[in-house]
Amino acid sequence: MNIKGLVAGLFVTGLLASCAPSINVKYDYDPKVNVRQFSTYRIEADRQRNADPIVGSNLNQRRIAEALDQSLQGLGYKPTEDLGADLIVRFFTDSKDRQQIQSNGMGSPWGWGWGGWGYPNNQVYSRQYEENRVVVNVYDSRTNNIVWQGWATGQLNTRKNERNRDLAFRETVASIMKNFPQSAGQDYGAAR
Questions:
Q1: Mapping DSSP to helix (H, G, I), strand (E, B) and coil, where does residue 96 land?
Q2: How distant, in Å, are the alpha carbons of 9, 82, 95 from that of 14?
Q3: Based on the structure, what is the number of domains in the chain?
Q4: For position 137, which CATH number holds?
Q5: What pLDDT is stored for residue 157 in this prediction?
């Protein structure tokens, strides 16, 4: 293999690896709800929405539920199996096939590549991947209205996560829940 081919191969590999999507976390809440009133919770998998056979599997549902339980207890909320819990925490997962298109941006107005190495102009690379989403909805059990919602979008089913899926799900849920009010019985504005 010549040096040009090696450099081009390393460049393309680095370019595609650096552009791989990471976990993106967002949240929303109802500012009219005084969360001071809540102190207990019950966790449920949203069985109607966990349709993905891999990310939504029973094994991964248990991982997510355990991570939610750990996060909520760390924030001062108390778990209960009782139907009278203040909050109902429902979660679901889904997946979509995605395609990423990346240009090397090596185009030249003179028709030859950077440094005169003869790279073809503006090569385009494509990468197929699976995008996963974990959604956590927190309901006021009395009204059945969502008072807080957090979600993470990215790649959970990667080779990197293959060896330790427990850690991948735990970190994903923790990144979602870090936006939840910091302490049971505290007003949302005071928790931020």
A1: strand
A2: 9, 52, 26
A3: 1
A4: 3.30.160.670
A5: 61
Give residue-wise pLDDT tens across range 134-174: 999 999 999 999 999 999 988 776 555 556 778 888 999 99
| Rounded Cα gap, residues 51 and 40, in angstroms | 28
User: Tokens 């957090």, residue?
Assistant: 150
CA torsion angle 23 189 143 179 (round to 10): 10
DSSP string across 115-132: GGS-PPTT-EEEEEEEEE
Q: How far is CA 53 from CA 47, 57, 58, 109, 173, in A?
A: 12, 5, 9, 49, 19
What range defines the domain where residue 175 resides? 21-97+129-191
- At residue 140, the pLDDT reads 95
Torsion angles phi and psi, residue 137, rounded to 5: -110, 130
Q: Which of 144, 158, 141, 115 is nearest to 42 (CA)?
A: 141
Q: Are 100 and 130 in contact (CB under 8 A)?
A: no
